[in-house]
Amino acid sequence: MPEPLVRTSPTPAHDRFAPLDGSNGSARVFGPSPAAERDDPGVRSVVRALDLLTFFDENHRGRGVRELARAAGLPKTTVLRLVQTLEQYGMLWTRPDGQLAVGPGLLRWARLARDAWQLPEPAYEAMRELSAQTGETVNVFVRHGLVRVCIAQQEGSQALRHVVRIGDELPLWGGATGYVLLIDAQPDMIDAVARTSPQGSAFIPTLRERVQAAATAGWAESHGEREAGAASVAAPLLTPRGRVVAALTLAGPTSRFTPECVARFAPAVVVTAQRISSFGLAWAGSDLA
Protein backbone atom coordinates (compact mmCIF):
# COMPACT_ATOMS: atom_id res chain seq x y z
CA MET A 1 0.00 0.00 0.00
CA PRO A 2 1.39 3.44 -0.87
CA GLU A 3 2.54 5.62 1.97
CA PRO A 4 0.00 8.35 2.83
CA LEU A 5 0.91 11.98 2.65
CA VAL A 6 -0.07 12.44 6.28
CA ARG A 7 -1.31 9.84 8.72
CA THR A 8 -2.72 11.60 11.72
CA SER A 9 -2.58 9.96 15.14
CA PRO A 10 -5.42 10.23 17.63
CA THR A 11 -5.34 13.40 19.68
CA PRO A 12 -3.04 12.87 22.69
CA ALA A 13 -4.72 13.01 26.07
CA HIS A 14 -2.81 16.13 27.09
CA ASP A 15 -4.17 17.91 23.99
CA ARG A 16 -7.68 16.59 24.36
CA PHE A 17 -7.84 17.85 27.92
CA ALA A 18 -6.23 21.21 27.24
CA PRO A 19 -7.74 24.29 28.94
CA LEU A 20 -10.59 25.83 27.00
CA ASP A 21 -9.57 29.38 27.81
CA GLY A 22 -5.86 29.19 27.04
CA SER A 23 -4.97 29.24 30.73
CA ASN A 24 -3.18 26.60 32.76
CA GLY A 25 -6.44 25.37 34.26
CA SER A 26 -7.80 21.86 34.04
CA ALA A 27 -11.01 22.29 32.05
CA ARG A 28 -11.63 19.24 29.92
CA VAL A 29 -13.11 18.76 26.49
CA PHE A 30 -15.13 15.85 27.85
CA GLY A 31 -16.54 15.16 31.28
CA PRO A 32 -17.86 17.39 34.05
CA SER A 33 -16.43 20.71 35.03
CA PRO A 34 -13.72 20.82 37.70
CA ALA A 35 -16.32 22.14 40.17
CA ALA A 36 -18.57 19.17 39.51
CA GLU A 37 -15.63 16.84 40.07
CA ARG A 38 -14.85 18.41 43.43
CA ASP A 39 -18.48 18.19 44.52
CA ASP A 40 -18.91 14.53 43.54
CA PRO A 41 -16.06 12.19 44.52
CA GLY A 42 -17.70 9.35 42.58
CA VAL A 43 -17.72 11.33 39.36
CA ARG A 44 -14.15 12.44 39.99
CA SER A 45 -13.02 8.81 40.28
CA VAL A 46 -14.79 7.87 37.05
CA VAL A 47 -13.19 10.77 35.19
CA ARG A 48 -9.75 9.87 36.54
CA ALA A 49 -10.17 6.23 35.50
CA LEU A 50 -11.22 7.24 31.99
CA ASP A 51 -8.32 9.68 31.85
CA LEU A 52 -5.92 6.79 32.40
CA LEU A 53 -7.28 4.97 29.36
CA THR A 54 -6.59 7.99 27.16
CA PHE A 55 -2.85 7.64 27.78
CA PHE A 56 -2.81 4.44 25.71
CA ASP A 57 -2.45 4.87 21.95
CA GLU A 58 -0.61 3.44 18.95
CA ASN A 59 2.67 4.87 20.19
CA HIS A 60 2.14 3.86 23.83
CA ARG A 61 0.60 0.40 23.90
CA GLY A 62 2.17 -0.42 27.26
CA ARG A 63 2.42 1.83 30.31
CA GLY A 64 3.78 1.42 33.81
CA VAL A 65 1.90 2.53 36.92
CA ARG A 66 4.57 5.09 37.75
CA GLU A 67 4.41 6.40 34.18
CA LEU A 68 0.61 6.73 34.36
CA ALA A 69 0.81 8.49 37.71
CA ARG A 70 3.29 11.00 36.30
CA ALA A 71 1.22 11.57 33.13
CA ALA A 72 -2.04 11.98 35.05
CA GLY A 73 -0.52 14.04 37.85
CA LEU A 74 -1.94 11.68 40.48
CA PRO A 75 -0.41 9.88 43.45
CA LYS A 76 0.80 6.36 42.68
CA THR A 77 -1.55 4.89 45.30
CA THR A 78 -4.55 6.52 43.59
CA VAL A 79 -3.49 5.21 40.19
CA LEU A 80 -3.04 1.71 41.64
CA ARG A 81 -6.63 1.73 42.93
CA LEU A 82 -7.95 2.95 39.60
CA VAL A 83 -5.92 0.37 37.68
CA GLN A 84 -7.21 -2.44 39.88
CA THR A 85 -10.80 -1.40 39.16
CA LEU A 86 -10.16 -1.10 35.44
CA GLU A 87 -8.53 -4.54 35.42
CA GLN A 88 -11.55 -6.04 37.17
CA TYR A 89 -13.74 -4.84 34.31
CA GLY A 90 -11.29 -5.96 31.64
CA MET A 91 -10.44 -2.45 30.48
CA LEU A 92 -6.80 -2.87 31.43
CA TRP A 93 -4.61 -5.93 31.91
CA THR A 94 -1.07 -6.55 33.10
CA ARG A 95 1.22 -8.09 30.50
CA PRO A 96 3.83 -10.71 31.40
CA ASP A 97 6.48 -7.96 31.30
CA GLY A 98 4.62 -6.05 34.00
CA GLN A 99 3.41 -3.28 31.68
CA LEU A 100 -0.26 -2.33 31.61
CA ALA A 101 -2.12 -2.53 28.31
CA VAL A 102 -5.66 -2.05 27.04
CA GLY A 103 -7.73 -5.01 28.23
CA PRO A 104 -9.81 -7.53 26.29
CA GLY A 105 -13.00 -6.22 27.87
CA LEU A 106 -12.85 -3.26 25.50
CA LEU A 107 -13.18 -5.56 22.48
CA ARG A 108 -16.87 -5.96 23.22
CA TRP A 109 -17.37 -2.22 23.44
CA ALA A 110 -15.37 -1.70 20.26
CA ARG A 111 -17.61 -4.16 18.42
CA LEU A 112 -20.76 -2.49 19.76
CA ALA A 113 -19.46 0.96 18.79
CA ARG A 114 -18.54 -0.22 15.30
CA ASP A 115 -21.99 -1.74 14.81
CA ALA A 116 -23.77 1.28 16.26
CA TRP A 117 -22.00 3.77 14.00
CA GLN A 118 -22.13 1.79 10.77
CA LEU A 119 -23.37 3.56 7.66
CA PRO A 120 -25.83 1.74 5.41
CA GLU A 121 -24.11 -0.18 2.61
CA PRO A 122 -25.39 2.22 -0.10
CA ALA A 123 -23.56 5.00 1.74
CA TYR A 124 -20.27 3.13 1.46
CA GLU A 125 -20.93 2.59 -2.23
CA ALA A 126 -21.50 6.34 -2.65
CA MET A 127 -18.22 7.03 -0.85
CA ARG A 128 -16.38 4.59 -3.12
CA GLU A 129 -17.82 6.28 -6.20
CA LEU A 130 -16.82 9.74 -4.97
CA SER A 131 -13.29 8.54 -4.23
CA ALA A 132 -13.02 6.90 -7.65
CA GLN A 133 -14.33 10.06 -9.33
CA THR A 134 -11.85 12.38 -7.58
CA GLY A 135 -8.98 10.07 -6.64
CA GLU A 136 -9.05 11.50 -3.11
CA THR A 137 -9.82 10.04 0.32
CA VAL A 138 -13.40 10.28 1.57
CA ASN A 139 -14.23 10.39 5.29
CA VAL A 140 -17.33 10.75 7.42
CA PHE A 141 -16.97 12.60 10.71
CA VAL A 142 -19.34 13.23 13.60
CA ARG A 143 -19.04 15.85 16.32
CA HIS A 144 -18.36 14.65 19.86
CA GLY A 145 -17.93 17.36 22.44
CA LEU A 146 -15.24 19.71 21.20
CA VAL A 147 -13.66 17.23 18.78
CA ARG A 148 -14.67 15.36 15.65
CA VAL A 149 -14.43 11.61 15.24
CA CYS A 150 -13.89 9.69 12.00
CA ILE A 151 -16.50 6.90 11.70
CA ALA A 152 -16.06 5.82 8.06
CA GLN A 153 -13.44 6.08 5.33
CA GLN A 154 -12.69 5.24 1.73
CA GLU A 155 -9.01 5.77 0.90
CA GLY A 156 -8.14 7.50 -2.34
CA SER A 157 -6.21 5.93 -5.19
CA GLN A 158 -3.40 8.52 -5.27
CA ALA A 159 0.06 7.51 -4.07
CA LEU A 160 0.17 10.65 -1.91
CA ARG A 161 -2.95 11.03 0.15
CA HIS A 162 -4.21 12.31 3.47
CA VAL A 163 -5.46 9.53 5.71
CA VAL A 164 -6.82 9.34 9.23
CA ARG A 165 -7.98 6.19 10.98
CA ILE A 166 -11.52 5.31 11.93
CA GLY A 167 -11.94 6.38 15.54
CA ASP A 168 -9.36 9.16 15.33
CA GLU A 169 -10.31 12.36 17.13
CA LEU A 170 -9.37 15.67 15.52
CA PRO A 171 -10.02 19.26 16.61
CA LEU A 172 -13.12 21.09 15.42
CA TRP A 173 -11.62 24.56 15.22
CA GLY A 174 -9.77 24.06 11.92
CA GLY A 175 -10.66 22.49 8.62
CA ALA A 176 -13.73 22.31 6.40
CA THR A 177 -15.11 19.37 8.36
CA GLY A 178 -15.23 21.32 11.60
CA TYR A 179 -16.98 24.29 10.00
CA VAL A 180 -19.66 22.03 8.57
CA LEU A 181 -20.18 20.12 11.81
CA LEU A 182 -20.70 23.41 13.68
CA ILE A 183 -23.39 24.72 11.35
CA ASP A 184 -26.20 23.87 13.82
CA ALA A 185 -24.14 24.52 16.95
CA GLN A 186 -25.12 27.16 19.50
CA PRO A 187 -22.90 30.28 19.64
CA ASP A 188 -21.45 29.28 23.02
CA MET A 189 -20.38 25.92 21.58
CA ILE A 190 -18.66 27.62 18.64
CA ASP A 191 -16.90 29.96 21.07
CA ALA A 192 -15.77 27.03 23.23
CA VAL A 193 -14.37 25.29 20.15
CA ALA A 194 -12.53 28.46 19.13
CA ARG A 195 -10.88 28.64 22.54
CA THR A 196 -9.28 25.22 21.94
CA SER A 197 -7.41 26.63 18.93
CA PRO A 198 -3.85 27.94 19.17
CA GLN A 199 -5.24 31.48 19.03
CA GLY A 200 -7.65 30.97 21.90
CA SER A 201 -10.49 33.45 22.32
CA ALA A 202 -9.05 35.69 19.61
CA PHE A 203 -10.15 33.05 17.09
CA ILE A 204 -13.86 33.33 17.97
CA PRO A 205 -14.81 35.93 15.29
CA THR A 206 -12.93 34.00 12.59
CA LEU A 207 -14.51 30.67 13.47
CA ARG A 208 -17.98 32.19 13.62
CA GLU A 209 -17.44 33.69 10.17
CA ARG A 210 -16.23 30.41 8.67
CA VAL A 211 -19.12 28.44 10.16
CA GLN A 212 -21.60 31.00 8.82
CA ALA A 213 -20.00 30.80 5.38
CA ALA A 214 -20.35 27.01 5.43
CA ALA A 215 -24.01 27.31 6.42
CA THR A 216 -24.70 29.79 3.63
CA ALA A 217 -22.88 27.87 0.90
CA GLY A 218 -23.89 24.40 2.04
CA TRP A 219 -20.25 23.27 1.97
CA ALA A 220 -16.80 24.40 3.07
CA GLU A 221 -13.18 24.18 2.00
CA SER A 222 -9.91 24.56 3.86
CA HIS A 223 -6.22 24.72 2.98
CA GLY A 224 -3.65 24.05 5.68
CA GLU A 225 -5.68 25.70 8.42
CA ARG A 226 -5.25 22.81 10.83
CA GLU A 227 -2.37 20.95 9.22
CA ALA A 228 0.14 22.32 6.71
CA GLY A 229 -0.09 20.71 3.29
CA ALA A 230 -3.56 19.27 3.82
CA ALA A 231 -6.75 20.48 2.15
CA SER A 232 -10.36 19.39 2.26
CA VAL A 233 -13.87 19.99 0.99
CA ALA A 234 -16.80 19.03 3.23
CA ALA A 235 -20.60 19.00 3.10
CA PRO A 236 -23.16 18.16 5.79
CA LEU A 237 -25.03 14.89 6.20
CA LEU A 238 -28.55 15.74 7.26
CA THR A 239 -31.50 14.09 8.96
CA PRO A 240 -34.90 14.29 7.20
CA ARG A 241 -35.61 17.46 9.18
CA GLY A 242 -32.41 19.07 7.97
CA ARG A 243 -30.33 18.72 11.13
CA VAL A 244 -26.57 18.35 10.62
CA VAL A 245 -25.45 15.06 12.16
CA ALA A 246 -22.20 14.39 10.31
CA ALA A 247 -19.88 15.70 7.62
CA LEU A 248 -18.73 14.07 4.39
CA THR A 249 -15.18 15.14 3.67
CA LEU A 250 -12.89 14.87 0.68
CA ALA A 251 -9.26 15.29 1.76
CA GLY A 252 -5.86 15.37 0.10
CA PRO A 253 -2.71 17.43 -0.37
CA THR A 254 -3.14 21.15 -1.00
CA SER A 255 -1.30 20.85 -4.32
CA ARG A 256 -4.22 18.86 -5.75
CA PHE A 257 -6.93 21.11 -4.30
CA THR A 258 -6.46 24.00 -6.71
CA PRO A 259 -9.33 26.44 -7.32
CA GLU A 260 -10.18 24.55 -10.52
CA CYS A 261 -10.24 21.22 -8.69
CA VAL A 262 -12.25 22.58 -5.78
CA ALA A 263 -14.80 23.93 -8.26
CA ARG A 264 -15.17 20.35 -9.50
CA PHE A 265 -14.91 18.63 -6.13
CA ALA A 266 -17.44 20.74 -4.23
CA PRO A 267 -20.55 19.86 -6.29
CA ALA A 268 -19.57 16.19 -6.23
CA VAL A 269 -19.20 16.22 -2.45
CA VAL A 270 -22.51 18.04 -1.97
CA VAL A 271 -24.39 15.66 -4.25
CA THR A 272 -22.86 12.62 -2.56
CA ALA A 273 -23.70 14.03 0.88
CA GLN A 274 -27.30 14.54 -0.19
CA ARG A 275 -27.40 11.02 -1.56
CA ILE A 276 -26.04 9.51 1.66
CA SER A 277 -28.44 11.60 3.74
CA SER A 278 -31.36 10.17 1.76
CA PHE A 279 -30.43 6.63 2.82
CA GLY A 280 -31.09 7.42 6.47
CA LEU A 281 -28.53 7.25 9.26
CA ALA A 282 -29.64 4.88 11.99
CA TRP A 283 -27.44 6.46 14.67
CA ALA A 284 -29.02 9.87 14.04
CA GLY A 285 -32.00 8.73 16.11
CA SER A 286 -35.60 9.72 15.60
CA ASP A 287 -34.68 13.33 14.76
CA LEU A 288 -37.09 14.76 17.26
CA ALA A 289 -34.61 17.36 18.54
In short:
With 289 residues, this protein is an alpha+beta fold. Helix content is 42%, strand content 19%. The chain has 11 helices and 10 strands.
Question: Mind explaining what this structure looks like?
Answer:
By secondary structure, this protein is α+β, with helices and mostly antiparallel strands. It folds into 2 domains: 31-110, Arc Repressor Mutant, subunit A, CATH 1.10.10.10; 117-284, 2-Layer Sandwich (Beta-Lactamase). The protein is 42% helix and 19% strand. It is built from 11 helices and 10 strands. The protein has a 6-stranded antiparallel sheet. The protein has a two-stranded parallel ribbon with strand order 1-6. It has a two-stranded antiparallel ribbon with strand order 2-3. Helix 3 packs across helix 5, helix 4 (65-72) crosses helix 5 and helix 7 packs antiparallel against helix 11 (259-279). The longest helix is centred in the C-terminal third of the chain and has 21 residues, at 259-279. It is globular. 34% of the residues are buried. Mean pLDDT is 83; it is low at 1-38.
